[in-house]
Write a structure and sequence with these properties.
The protein is mainly alpha-helical and 223 residues long. It has two domains: 2-74, Arc Repressor Mutant, subunit A (Orthogonal Bundle); 79-220, GntR ligand-binding domain-like (Four Helix Bundle (Hemerythrin (Met), subunit A)), CATH 1.20.120. Helices cover 76% and strands 4% of the residues. It is built from nine helices and three strands. The radius of gyration is 18 Å and the shape is globular. It starts with a helix and ends with a helix.
Amino acid sequence: MALKTLQSAPSLVEQVHGAILSEIASGKLLPGARIIQEQLAQELGVSRQPVQQALTLLRKQGVLRDAPGRGLQVAALDLQHVRHLYDVRSVIEGLAFRKAAETNAKRAATQGPALIRAGRKAVAAGSVGGMIAADMAFHDFIYELSGNPLLAPSMETHWTHTQRVMGEVLMRDDKPRDIWDEHEALLAAVASGDGDQAERLARRHILEAADFMIRRLQAEQPG
């Protein structure tokens, strides 16, 4: 019984973590909003323990902060921190796309187009959650194609903050930048087996995305 509990607990904590992060990224929990542990546990249909563990993790990741008095609240985005994250992410993504092109070009060509179509469909539907999920699915696919099992775990913290940034921008921008043309070009480079081109495009894609989103967020800040 103890072994079974140990195996199932991380999965439940991850699900709770993802659910809370989704609420924040979609704008249902705005910066400054207080986090009520008991309410979250009730809404998610789980005990307080996995909620507490997920909240602790989100606090360590900088998504939540201590609230005045007691408890936690949603932290405001630190744009300088976002810039640093994207600088690092551009290097990791460049490696992922290079390796994917060098090792799995055929799979990229046959399986990748469905992800591009799903992304365009999410944009057409205007669903913030759907657009974020489609973007993550495309990049997860590339991490898998890279053949390097360390890439996806290395990107977990980056994606925690990327979801927040994307959510904030997509909620505010009436015409969110359609990144799927860029994703299609990236996929074409991987499918052609051109590692140099795939890495170059991936780095540019991430850094230009950072510039775009940070500009949008700066425009919303007072002063």
